[in-house]
Specification:
Structural class: mainly alpha
Strand order of the largest sheet: 1-2
Oligomer: single chain
Number of strands: 2
């Protein structure tokens, strides 16, 4: 019997554990034993895993609740919130990326777009974030996670705690007592789930982050292509640090390694001639620079966005979703609440009623 868990299931599971605290042990034992016996009838001698037993118990609890109460389960709220965020965050990323691209590629005809500014703002910054992520994973694997950078999950939980505190103060003055109680119960379930399944709950946040960054890069790419095709843009480079054009050329060749094997060299990265011919010297201006050198940079910049901005993030998003699915299917259910449910399900009911005296 295969069991497929979702985040909705986890929050609903904690909700029913919370409800069971108000029910006596004999009644819980009778209920859970009946669920187990019904399950054995359905599957006969087939071996049933702990995960499958627990999921069957959860589904039975949901069915019983639907028959007696009309309430929205926490898992449903969590699923709806994640779906909403999965739409809103990428959309906000696209809008922010488009605005950033339109604002950056503003050319008055006097000073070309400095490619160093573009690379540092939109490419190197993302590569640094990827490097930090890789370092954290490496430190985690060798047992040095406490010495690495703060995790994305800790950042999200800190922000969530601040928002929850503000929301709580707002609710105290704007909603009824029963609604406040529901909110407090839901917040308590979230804290419990975080305590039990903290690492597991990291992956939805990771996926949402990658979707948002993908949206940003898509918007930035669209705005960049729009500006390039509809404007007479010129690109150049300048730096206070005096380094040679050949050193820059070698650096660009390294950056272009992911695509230079597929595309012609003159498209993959600017030639040494184009690099030398697009260097901006403040006292000389740009009027002596050739147009073909000033426009030779844009294919390289677009390819940087495609690979380092979009492709790498899409790969990370897919990897995160696969890891999330694997973690959900290999949850270790070994906490006290789970063990209590399994014990009640698998322990036969024993009657302690004494026999009547015969006179």
């Amino acid at each position: 019997m295969k069991s497929n868990w979702t985040y909705s299931d986890i929050f609903d599971l904690e909700y029913f554990f919370y409800r069971d605290r108000e029910i006596g042990e004999p009644q819980l034992h009778d209920r859970d034993r009946s669920i187990y016996l019904d399950l054995k009838k359905q599957h006969g001698r087939e071996s049933v895993s702990t995960s499958s037993l627990l999921l069957s118990w959860l589904n039975s609890s949901r069915t019983s609740l639907d028959q007696t109460e009309k309430t929205t389960l926490p898992g449903t709220l969590i699923s709806e919130a994640l779906r909403l965020l999965a739409m809103l965050l990428p959309l906000s990323g696209i809008i922010f990326g488009m605005l950033s691209g339109l604002a950056f590629f503003t050319y008055s005809g006097k000073a070309p777009v400095n490619v160093f500014h573009f690379l540092f703002l939109f490419v190197f910054s993302q590569l640094i974030l990827l490097l930090i992520l890789l370092i954290r994973q490496l430190f985690k694997r060798i047992g040095l996670a406490r010495y690495s950078f703060p995790s994305l999950f800790k950042l999200y939980t800190s922000l969530t705690a601040v928002l929850a505190s503000k929301l709580h103060r707002r609710l105290q003055s704007s909603v009824s007592g029963s609604q406040q109680a529901i909110y407090q119960q839901f917040l308590g379930l979230a804290k419990t789930a975080h305590h039990k399944y903290g690492q597991l709950l990291y992956w939805p946040f990771f996926s949402l982050s990658q979707r948002t960054i993908i949206g940003f890069n898509a918007g930035l790419l669209g705005a960049s292509l729009f500006r390039i095709t509809t404007s007479d843009l010129a690109f150049g480079w300048q730096s206070t640090i005096q380094f040679s054009s050949s050193a820059l050329y070698q650096g660009l060749k390294i950056l272009a390694l992911p695509w230079s094997w597929l595309l012609p060299a003159d498209i993959s990265y600017p030639s040494l001639t184009a690099i030398e011919g697009s260097r901006i010297i403040l006292k000389d201006g740009i009027y002596h620079l050739a147009t073909q050198n000033l426009v030779a940079w844009w294919p390289f910049l677009i390819l940087c966005l495609l690979v380092y901005g979009l492709l790498f993030r899409i790969i990370l998003m897919i990897a995160g979703q696969l890891t999330q699915r694997h973690r959900l299917n290999t949850i270790r259910f070994d906490n006290a609440d789970v063990l209590s449910v399994l014990r009640r399900m698998q322990s036969p009911l024993v009657s302690t009623q004494a026999k009547e005296d015969v006179h």
